[in-house]
Design goal:
The complex is a heterotrimer of chains A (184), B (313) and C (419). With 184 residues, chain A is α+β, with helices and mostly antiparallel strands. Chain A contains three helices and nine strands. Chain A has a three-stranded antiparallel beta sheet with strand order 1-9-8, with no helix packed on it. In chain A, strands 2-3-4 form a three-stranded antiparallel beta sheet, with no helix packed on it. In chain B, strands 1-2 form a two-stranded antiparallel sheet. In chain B, strands 3-4 form a two-stranded antiparallel sheet. In chain B, helix 2 crosses helix 8 and helix 6 runs antiparallel to helix 8. The chains are: A alpha+beta (184), B mainly alpha (313), C mainly alpha (419). Chain A: Pfam families: Rieske (PF00355), UCR_Fe-S_N (PF10399). Chain A: It catalyses: a quinol + 2 Fe(III)-[cytochrome c](out) = a quinone + 2 Fe(II)-[cytochrome c](out) + 2 H(+)(out).
């Protein structure tokens, strides 16, 4: 009698474990399935194929005189191209690295020293710094000055003073010939 | 799987969906053809798509655009990056305006779309006797029968179509004319009776004209298609403005496949199907995985449901 | 309120004391007592809710990629199909789930008709359901316009022109609907705005629908009120697991279409960009409108056709007062059961007629079927309420056999007798 009821309770316990296991499996698969469904929805908000395909742009440099600048669009944002003067190149090269908040040598930022190509958005909060047009305020270091929160960039586009944490970024640049570059 | 789809489809039909209602305009239904992409496990055949692209490029593209296809999309056909760039560079696209405000031509890049053969729909219509050639990007999904229809159309011109098919069309048309003629005669007799009554009092009454018996349709000429149209067994109304576009050896296939009319038509139809639904392979592969997952998941849920309900009384 | 909430979690208790959401969820989805004899036809309510959620979630993501402008709408949809990551999947889900939503809701409604779920005290529950159906139809119609294909454009033209049948003000109303002198950019924009809005209105009505449901609880296949605890079981886990299983089966059927025939329920003409100069040879609405479209075309008068079409749904509002029989379930109504199936077949027939050209046999059948649709509600149901002799009802859900309720009731209750 006692053995019987022990047997029965053992059986009902087994039943319960099996049931709980099934619930657990079902819940786990439900979570996995929902996740698998949610992922494409989230991923759809990433850049689409035709946006990624527009990743490069070609620029003819020949019309830019020494000392002048040109702003072009790349991936929906401005890129600064400056045809630097000898003085500007020298100034950028002569700075000691330990004076810089974001230490980078000018030589590492250019392909040819007379052509500086940098992203045109302040690394603080994304405003477009002044300094492209001849009359613009160029900041204390002769490069660019961001009017939003007062960041000063030098003639290599490096941050020298102000809240911006990093230098203006250098996009991938390739010289197709002497006066044509491909950005991206 | 196929059976499941069929069952589901049958269930849907019983629910009152009559889908794919036959088009009213008279034309033969395109016979169904077996494609590499037919069925649940079918995929596109890249070699065939490349050949189809060659046919499109060398023949169709002089009149038909494919606005939705970019050169980068051709990677699906199995070309590598360098080949794609070379293909794109063969095309000129209009870009601009440049810094002087002028538009200029330049070789196409991967991100560019196939250039249209005509500047706009009006130019396309004007150059083609008033009927603008449709864009082919989506044509395989925009016609009942899809690639089957396209293949049937391209092989459905008078010289290419079989005698049985012609006879079938002639019989249908003859029958239709007989029915119409009988109806017209009936109406005529009613009018004639009225006239005979009326003419007794009013001698100026006009006698109704007797309808002409159109006679049987025994040849393509009897169909009375307009001069500008070519006969096509599968085009609604049988008269198509497009002259037979393909013929044997009109292109020389790079891979040495014989350029028979049948091959040319099948290849370019497959290419158009790809253009309309480039994600089909991906979709089917994902579908098989999802259904396997759901089968296991639903099985577990069923077991859980059974266990859960076992003690309900 | 929170005395039934069993939890040891202090945070949950703290929140629940101030905002009893957990108690509410517990009462509506966990402990909620449901009749223990609900069959699988009762799964379709939760399935409809599931479909609504899927539609809203996919729709929001699609709206982020869609451009509501006549020049860009068609290509923006194709961009979703080709360039957006997983865009083809999301759009095909949205497209096919719309059809499946209607399948589920139609079955849900026929279940209500068969088991008399609209009868007292659930009249308002039923009427709210009809409101949801109307909102769904409006939403689906406007959604079909958004891709701006040929069927979108001509469907919009034909359906909005229905309002021109209204005497005196008809023309002015149609111009107002269009925001111009034809279906054009203003029309597309407002349809997009409303297509985005209405699903949330549906959610609101669904909440009220559930509120009304929980007032008296679900009807059941026997159509008698559940008596006390022995007739009821808690919603969780019994019906949560059963509904989840239903969702699994539903998704299997759905996946068959989604992955292997995603355009089966659509129309090829909608892959041709809208062209106001060329009407497609056959204008056919989406399948779920076909029975109503058939009613519209069966009546040779423009205004009366429109009136009949709207009346075919409007009549559902007064159904609880047309059917006077005190017995709910068709199980115990031997004559009504036959008329139910006749009515069901009639609806299928109307659907078939709706997609045929309105001439010859389909036209005649359509007129007969339309007449029968209204006769069923206006003549058959009131007469049956008086003339039909229902079978004896069981005493309770738990004891149908003891009631001597006849073979049918006993057989129907049998599956529940295992244990």
């Amino acid at each position: 009698m006692a053995a019987d009821s022990a047997h029965a309770s053992q059986q009902s316990q087994d039943e319960e474990t099996r049931r709980d296991f099934l619930y657990l499996m079902a819940t786990a698969m439900g979570v996995v399935g929902t996740g698998a469904f949610a992922w494409p929805l989230v991923n759809s908000m990433n850049p689409s194929k035709e946006v990624l395909a527009l990743a490069s742009t070609e620029v003819d440099l020949s019309p830019i005189e020494v000392g002048q600048s040109l702003t072009v669009m790349w991936r929906g944002k401005p890129v600064f191209i400056r045809h630097r003067t000898e003085a500007e190149i020298a100034e950028a090269a002569d700075v000691a690295l330990d004076e810089l908040p974001d230490q980078e040598a000018d030589a590492d930022r250019v392909v040819k020293p007379e052509w500086l190509v940098v992203g045109g958005n302040c690394t603080h909060l994304g405003c477009v710094p002044l300094g492209q047009k001849t009359g613009d305020e160029k900041g204390e270091y002769g490069g660019w000055f961001c009017p939003c929160h007062g960041s000063h960039y030098d003639t290599s586009g490096r941050i020298r003073k102000g809240p911006a944490p990093e230098n203006l970024p250098v996009p991938p640049v390739e010289f197709l010939d002497d006066t044509t570059i491909k950005i991206g | 799987m196929k059976k499941f789809v069929l069952t589901a489809a049958a269930a849907a039909v019983t629910l009152g969906l009559g889908i794919g209602a036959a088009s009213a305009a008279e034309a033969l239904k395109a016979p169904s053809k077996t494609w590499s992409f037919s069925g649940v496990f079918g995929t596109y055949d890249q070699a065939q798509l490349q050949r189809g692209y060659q046919v499109y490029k060398q023949v169709c593209s002089s009149c038909h655009g494919m606005d939705l296809i970019a050169f980068r999309n051709l990677a699906d056909l199995g070309y590598n990056e360098d080949e794609l760039k070379a293909i794109a560079a063969e095309y000129e696209v209009t870009d601009g305006p440049d810094e002087f405000g002028d538009m200029f031509d330049r070789p196409a890049r991967l991100s560019d779309y196939f250039p249209s053969p005509f500047a706009n729909a009006q130019a396309a219509a004007a150059a083609n006797g008033g009927a603008a050639p449709p864009d082919l990007s989506l044509v395989a999904k925009a016609r009942v029968g899809g690639p089957d229809y396209l293949y049937a159309l391209l092989t459905g011109y008078e010289d290419d179509v079989s005698e049985e098919v012609l006879q079938q069309i002639f019989e249908t048309e003859t029958h239709k004319r007989e029915v119409q003629y009988a109806a017209a005669m009936e109406a005529y007799e009613v009018r004639l009776a009225k006239y005979q009554e009326k003419v007794k009092t009013d001698p100026t009454a006009k006698e109704p004209a007797m309808p002409e018996d159109p006679g049987p349709v025994e040849s393509v000429e009897d169909l009375g298609l307009p001069d500008t149209a070519s006969f096509n067994a599968y085009f609604p109304g049988y008269g198509i403005a497009m002259a037979p576009p393909l013929s044997e050896d009109i292109v020389e296939y790079a891979d040495g496949t014989p350029a028979t009319l049948s091959n040319l038509s099948a290849d370019v139809s497959a290419f158009m199907m790809w253009a309309a639904e480039p994600t089909m392979d991906q979709r089917k592969q994902m579908g098989i995985k999802v259904i396997l997952f759901l089968l296991v998941f639903t099985g577990i849920l069923y077991a859980a449901k059974r266990k859960c309900w076992a003690d309900v009384h | 309120m929170s005395e039934h909430l069993k939890t040891n979690n202090a945070l949950i208790k703290w929140i629940d004391h101030r905002l009893p959401v957990f108690s509410m969820m517990n009462e509506t989805m966990i402990d909620y007592p449901a009749p223990k004899n609900l069959n699988y036809w009762w799964n379709f309510g939760s399935l409809a809710g599931f479909a609504l959620v899927v539609m809203i979630v996919t729709g929001i993501v699609l709206a982020m990629q869609y451009t509501a402008h006549v020049d860009y709408a068609f290509n923006s949809v194709e961009r979703i199909m080709r360039d957006v990551n997983g865009g083809w999947l999301i759009r095909y889900i949205h497209m096919n789930m719309a059809s499946f939503f209607f399948i589920v809701v139609f079955i849900h409604m026929f279940r209500g008709l068969y088991y008399g779920s609209y009868k007292a005290p659930r009249e308002i529950l039923w009427m709210l359901g009809v409101v949801i159906l109307l909102l769904m139809m409006a939403t689906a119609f406007m959604g079909y316009v958004l891709p701006w294909g040929q069927m979108s454009f001509w469907g919009a033209t034909v359906i909005t022109n229905l309002f021109s049948a209204i005497p005196v003000f008809g023309e002015a109303i149609v111009v107002w609907l269009w925001g111009g002198f034809s279906v054009d950019n203003p029309t597309l924009n407002r349809f997009f705005a409303l297509h985005y809005l209405l699903p949330f209105v549906i959610v609101g009505v669904v909440v009220v629908h559930l509120w009304a449901l929980h007032r008296f609880g679900s009807n059941n296949p026997l159509g008698i009120e559940a008596n006390g605890q022995q007739d009821k079981i808690p919603f969780h886990p019994y019906y949560t697991v059963k509904d989840a299983f239903g969702v699994g089966v539903f998704l299997l059927a759905f996946s068959g279409f989604l992955f292997f025939a995603p355009n089966f329920l659509g129309h090829p003409d909608n892959y041709i960009p809208a062209n106001p100069l060329v009407t497609p040879a056959h204008i056919v609405p989406e399948w779920y409108f076909l029975p109503f479209y058939a009613i519209l075309r069966s009546i040779p008068d423009k205004l009366l056709g429109v009136v009949a079409m709207f009346a075919s749904i409007g009549i559902l509002f007064i159904l609880p007062w047309l059917d006077r029989s005190p017995v709910r379930s068709a199980k115990f109504r031997p004559v009504y059961k036959w008329f139910f199936w006749l009515f069901f077949a009639n609806c299928i027939l109307l659907g078939w007629v709706g997609q045929e050209a309105a001439e010859g046999l389909p036209l005649i059948l359509g007129r007969l079927a339309t007449a029968w649709y209204f006769i069923h509600f206006l003549v058959v149901l009131p007469l049956l309420g008086v003339m039909e002799r229902p079978k004896p009802l069981p005493v309770s859900i738990s004891e149908p056999v003891l009631s001597g309720g006849g073979g049918l009731a006993a057989a129907a209750a049998k599956p529940m007798e295992k244990a």
